[in-house]
Each structure stands twice: as structure tokens, then as C-alpha cells.
Amino acid sequence: MRLGTVLLVSPKTSFGRDLQRTYAGGLGTVCKDEDFLLPPLDLMRLAGVLREDADDIAIADEEVTGVVPSVEPGTTVICHVSLPSLLEDAERLATFRAQGARCYAYTSIRSPAQWRTLFERGGCEGVLLPESISFARAALAGDHTVPGLVTPDSLLDPRHHQPAFGDLAAEPLPARDLVDHTPYMFPPIARTGITSINGSFGCPYPCRFYCPYPLSEGRKIRTYPVERIVAEFRQCAELGITAAVFRDPVFSFHRDRTLELCQALKAADTGVPWWCETRIDRLDEEVVAALVDAGCVGVEVGVESGDPDMQATAVRKRLNLDTVRKFHAVARKAGLKLVFLFLIGLPRETRMSIRRTFDFILELGLADTEFNLSVITPYPGTELHQIAVDKGWIDGSQNAFTSHNAVMHTDELSIGDLERASRFVDELHAVCKAGPAERAEFQARVHAWSTGDA
């Protein structure tokens, strides 16, 4: 079956360019005052799969281009839907539906309540989940049995929460040629012309208690063949793309494969630098050296908390802070840029543990660009979300689920506590650029707050 005209859309929303749809396991985050912008990788992957059966195919990132397209009746439209912008995205789907399009939502959200909104308010025929990308041609041709396709009749099918993924080795290259990459940027490596890329999917770690990546991508690590990733780098070089940001949850999970990939990228010599995200306990000096040698400019690593008690009890990474200190020294010696990812507001978090996280950041001497500190978000589908619902902790509306807004309290922290901590985070970024006196004054105020004296 020919698909006719296909339009894949990242809709314009009130969040503007601050909405990063590929973050938070594809649920989307809103990153205010940050100047990075990633291209619509999932839509490029879908286009790569669908283009063979389409008479005409295009990708529209409405926020970036400023163009809000209209469609002819019979066009198949797939809109990328994020959690904070769900209602706005549903309205955009409804607009296309009113123009006579066949409408589908693409999303990483795994919650029947949100899917129902897309059917009832967006008027879409189906919801495509991440595992549907391999089977997208069959799904759009009318096969409702393929993995990752949700219809009104299969809304409550438990298979949608235990995804079956297709063969990554058989997936065509993303259709990067359909997107002008010039506006996209990731300042640690390039301020224009960057792309995003996946080498693997999935995360088996117990941080799935609060992290949405295992929810959307599964718990099993699935990898593209090394030669396929090298082919993507060659594609990027041919298109004039300046750098690549890997979106893998745990880039270096398989140590031997990581070393093999680094050797292959070095040999390919495409001149495309790259960035990745991984875990500290999946990096050692040899791997760090191999990353740098292969063109890796920097890595993001999750730490979550700078409080030893939180690491031992609440944070599911179970990191020894001395391990973090050692890794920090190794990476700096190797010339590898770093961004440490911290999180405040988990159950068992207190004012004192938040203070210790701030102190740890200052102890490491991190620059204001070398850390990101998010507020806990109870993402639908995670165990934390169910606990938060049962305990009545959730205070914020869904469009505030941005990872930077305080949307839930806990037995230990009020919404006011988390809002105050968020303001301290903003100050901390400024303090990291200031002198010793300003740092000491900041720490004194945080210490007074942590003990209830302010």
C-alpha cells in the first residue's frame, strides 16, 4: 500500500524553543534560559522507515522554522507529542484532522489517560510508541497488531507497557536530509548545524523508579551495529553537519563494544565531533581515553545527589561520592568536558541533603555549565508516580511536568521547600562564576535554611 503524502510534525507550542522533546526519555522537558536545541531525531527515524512507501514526505519543526503548514485532504500527518505540551499537541492534531488528514500521534508517553486525550481531543487514528518505528509502514497501512500501535480499541492492552522492539540492524538511516540542521545547536561542541544520534536504547538500572528512559525504551540494552553508527557519521559529514549528540541513556554500557565503536569512529575520520551520556561506573581511564581519541568532546553523567545518605538509601545509582571525585579528576586530566546531572526532591530528601548536594558541587569546583540540577517529576508510568498518586503528593498540573518546576511534595519536603531550593539552584549557577566571598555568603544562607534558621 502506498502512503501518499506524509508529513511529520514537531508542533509549535507556548513553550517555544525551551521544549526539548527528546529529553526525559522522550517525554520532553522545558529547559529555560538554556541555548541548546536538538533536531527531531524520532521524526527523522520515522521518515527513514516510511519514505520508501510515500509519494512525498516532509518533516516540519514548526517552532524552529516558524512555518505552520496546512495539508491537503488524505495526507497522513504524524505529530510528535510531549507530556508538558500534550493538550497543545492534541489541538494541533485536531487542526490537521479538520483539514481532512489522517492523523497519528508519536509519543513516548505510556499512560492510557494521556492516550485517551489524544483520541478524544486530537481525533487521531492511532498513537505510535517508540517500538512502532520499525513497524511504521505496516501500522499506517492498517495493521493494528504491530507492536507500538495504540488504537481506541487497544487502549488498555498490557503489551503497550511491555514493549517488543524490532530489529535495529534492519532500520534505514534517519532521513537527516529532510531537515535543515543549521538552527540546531549544542554549545559545548557547536553553535550551529548539530544533529542527534542513537547508538543504543534501553536502561536496565533500578533508577527506573523515577527515570522515564526504561519506561519508554525498555530495560534491555539494544544496540545498532557499529558499522551502522559509522555510516550515520559519514551521512552527517556528507550533509555538512558539524557535530553529533548521542541520546543513548547509557552510551558505554558494553565496555568492549564501546572500545570497538571508538576505534571504528577514529578510523572513519569523518571530522564530526560528538557528545554522549552514560554512567560513571561504566567509565574507566582506558574508556575515557578511547572516547577522547575517537572525537568525543564531553559526557553527561548522572550523580543525582551529593549527600552520602541519599546515595545509600534513596538514589538508585548507589554511587560512592569518592568514585565521582576520582572520575572528575580523570576526565579533566583527559580533556573531556563534563556535565554532572543532579536531582532534588526524591522521597527521603531533606533540606539538609539538598544543602549537601550544593556543597558537593562547590567542592568539585564545577563551572556553571558543568552541572544541571533538576526537580523531581513523577512521570506517569513510573513507580514514583503511582506512589505520589496514592499519597496525594502531586500538586502541579501536567503542563508543569518540565523537570524544572516543583510539582510534588513528599513527607519530608513541602512544595515551598522545593521552590526555595529551585531558587537556590539559580543562584548557585551564578555563584559558580563568582569569587570566594560570594560563595561563602551563599553557603551560609543555604546552611541556615537547611537547619530551619531561615
Strand content: 15-25%
Question: What is the 3D form?
Answer: globular
N- to C-terminal separation? 67 Å
Rg, rounded, reads 22 Å
* Average pLDDT: 93
Keywords:
single chain, 454 residues, six-stranded parallel beta sheet, globular, six-stranded mixed beta sheet, metal-binding, alpha/beta
How would you explain this protein's 3D organization?
With 454 residues, this protein is α/β, with parallel strands linked by helices. It is built from 15 helices and 16 strands. The chain has helices spanning 41-50, 62-65, 86-98, 112-120, 136-140, 213-217, 226-238, 255-268, 285-293, 308-313, 321-334, 351-364, 383-391, 415-431, 436-450, and strands spanning 5-10, 19-20, 29-30, 56-61, 76-80, 102-106, 126-128, 149-150, 194-197, 200-201, 222-223, 243-246, 274-278, 296-304, 337-344, 371-375. The strands form four sheets. It has a six-stranded mixed beta sheet, with helices on both faces. α12 links the parallel β15 (337-344) and β16. α3 (86-98) runs parallel beside α4 (112-120), α7 packs parallel to α8 and α12 packs antiparallel against α15. Keywords: Iron, Iron-sulfur, Metal-binding, S-adenosyl-L-methionine. Residues 185-420 form the Radical SAM core domain.
